[in-house]
Design goal:
mainly alpha, 76% helix, 2 domains, flat
């Protein structure tokens, strides 16, 4: 056997466990859901084998859930990015190595507690005995924060901010400091250096963080359920309702497949746009 064949067999053997896991745990369930989406609901709920596009024709019945998800997922991602970048920049550039590890641990501390418990904490903070009571003491009475879109956005930022901070922090931490020194030696202002050097080179971290947060938000159901009070209905909430409560598995599968398709198209276009800009800016720096 030639060296080339040995290398291919070794590569195939190393990739086989991962490929099998990917096939069994991701591809096959997705195929099953796709098959269900062309079926019909039985009289008592569940799935009856059939081949019809009726479920996809009924998608406008869940249009509100799609609108809310496609509105709040990008909004939550953008808000998380705007808050995470200054924090990541401060941790990577401004903080001394002596305190950096401690501050990074404080950023990740919320993940040590269940998201459900943290969401319940926000129910109290935004509820009648929390911030609205404090605002009432200073004359701003009758303000309602819980069960509003504002509460959902706050919960999203709080829940997903660390996932945005760390990819950006890694990009900034690995930034070649000699480029910053060269920009300073050439007479560039700190703000111009940030726009022309730091920001473009941190674009991969921003893209990774945005992709992580956006993908998870597209399937979110816990935060809108508890902080939105049923007034802000995401696709995740619709899926729970269809699969668990009404047991309409074919329609739920059609909604799920449509969600996966939207995510694939959106993420693909986003990554092409971001990576294209990042490559172009990197070449201009060189």
């Amino acid at each position: 056997m030639s060296e080339g064949n040995k290398g291919r067999w070794l590569t195939g053997a190393l990739l086989a466990p991962t490929s099998a896991w990917y096939l069994i745990m991701l591809v096959m369930p997705l195929i099953v859901v796709a098959i269900f989406s062309f079926g019909e609901r039985s009289q008592y709920g569940g799935y009856v084998a059939s081949f019809t596009f009726e479920q996809y024709a009924n998608l406008p019945a869940r249009l509100t859930a799609f609108k809310n998800t496609l509105a709040y997922a990008p909004l939550g991602t953008l808000a998380s990015l705007l808050l995470a970048y200054p924090l990541a920049y401060y941790l990577a550039v401004k903080v001394s190595p002596r305190w950096r590890l401690l501050l990074l641990v404080l950023v990740i501390v919320p993940f040590w507690t269940s998201l459900l418990i943290r969401t319940y904490a926000w129910i109290f903070i935004l509820g009648g005995k929390g911030i609205p009571t404090l605002l009432g003491f200073i004359g701003f009475e009758g303000i309602r924060l819980i069960n509003t879109p504002f509460a959902v956005v706050v919960g999203i930022i709080y829940g997903y901010l660390p996932l945005m901070v760390f990819p950006i922090y890694v990009s900034l931490e690995n930034l070649d400091k000699r480029l910053l020194e060269a920009s300073d030696d050439l007479g560039s202002t700190p703000f111009r250096t940030f726009l022309q050097v730091t920001l473009p080179l941190s674009m991969p971290g921003m893209a990774t963080g945005c992709m992580l947060v956006f993908i998870l938000l597209m399937g979110e159901f816990l935060i809108p359920k508890f902080l939105g009070g049923g007034k802000v209905f995401f696709i995740g909430n619709a899926l729970v309702d269809l699969f668990v409560q009404s047991r309409n598995w074919p329609f739920g599968s059609a909604v799920a497949i449509t969600l996966v398709f939207i995510m694939l198209v959106t993420v693909t276009l986003y990554m092409r746009l971001i990576m294209g800009r990042s490559t172009g800016r990197s070449e201009s720096l060189m």
